[in-house]
Amino acid sequence: MKISLHVWRQSSRDDRGGMKEYQLDDISPEMSFLEMMDCLNEQLTQNGEEPVAFDHDCREGVCGMCSMVINGEAHGPKAETTTCQLYMRHFEDGAQIYIEPWRSSAFPVIKDLVVDRSAFDRIIQAGGFISNHSGPKPEPNSIPIEPEIAEQALDAATCIGCGACVAACPNGSAMLFTAAKASHLGLLPQGQTERYSRAKTMVNQMEEEGFGSCRNYAECEAQCPKGISIAFIGQLNSDYLKASLVEPVDRRGEMHSQ
Amino acid sequence: MNRLQALYATTIGKKFIAAITGIILFGFILGHVAGNLKVFTGATADGIPHIDEYAHFLKIAGAPLVPEQFVLWSARSVLLISLILHMTVVIQLALISAEARPISYVKSKKRAASLPALWMMFSGLLILGFVIFHILHFTTGTIVIGEFNHGFVYNNLESSFSNPLVGIGYILVMLVLGFHLNHGIWSLFQTLGLDNPDRNKFLRLTATGLTIAIIAGFISIPLAFMTGAMPDPVSYPHELLTGHR
Fold first, then answer.
1. pLDDT value at position B245?
2. In this prediction, does ipTM exceed 0.95?
């Protein structure tokens, strides 16, 4: 099949960048989207041009590296699919395909389609530790967990940290990511000790990174390759408000009667 | 106070304020539509329309415990402060979000975001313009369409809405208000962390149901006057209502 690619080219962080058009004439529908990108880069190399820089790693939908906005949708047109799981058969012959990097001031473009997502790492770091027994492996049933809650925590834990939520959000908000990371610990008994302080420090870090504000569009959920629910955003809102307004700050201060 | 300041510094805190002020403003809308419907309940034996009586009650509510108009102006102050806070935080949030995406996409596609949600700023701005016009029109009487006399609410309504342009204008703005409420009422539950998959459907249906009921209530008034379904106003001496000579 033949396709026309419109790819964002930007040589460095400071470069202004712009869209550039490329023609690919011999693409098999069975190729994955990233294999098609490899073909493009071979063609560019043969013509003596600079290949397109793009992130990729596992190519099986779990590492969260392949970050591309394809035709205006994070990870392309298929729901709950990462870019690497997208195949050329999902496009029509002669298709015009627009490929852009994640657009967020918190994710500066390093080169072409590669963005710096260390802001996410700093949010996770801000979450800190969980107070947990760290000796020999405990007896598996020593901490009872309601299966429904375990499943829910696992749903949150499926977040691969790819950043599609930020890319998809009309406001560039990172609430879905932060909510998923805060919730998968906050739901489990092992994560209760620091539940409210964690919600606070993670949200504060998220704010510092310069992400936008959540407007409850649910666009993040719709474009998340793991289909993580905005229910976790509600959970984080609840935990954060409780941490800010209800949880005592000064537990050991003085009190008087009257 | 420190807690509120720290909360206000975050986007979640600003949204919290938008949600709380949204509830206050929604409460006003609910009271306003309920009061407005008195236009349909007729008049007293003296010929005073119930809506005129109600409008007078709003002025003297709380008297003689507190001076006349005290309750009225207290409520107006709360509403004005809520409105200003609601707009301030929303503008601040919009600026933060604009900064979060300095370069926009060449191609952008929405899968879930609804148009009313995406156009909240626009509908809000239109509602603000309408509220200013509405106060100048029916409260202060600065903008006179047809005839305006302070306190003669039924007469004023009849006189304005007999002009179909005014009626249609009011109806159109109410539809915009409906879009704003339909997203806003649900959204505030999510912002306050009160929504979850168990109640999501219930909350969304409640938001839509309340919106339809409120907007239908508001629209029914200009519509009734425009179609000539309302009885003609009867003139009565205003002393009958106020008791003042």
1. 44
2. no
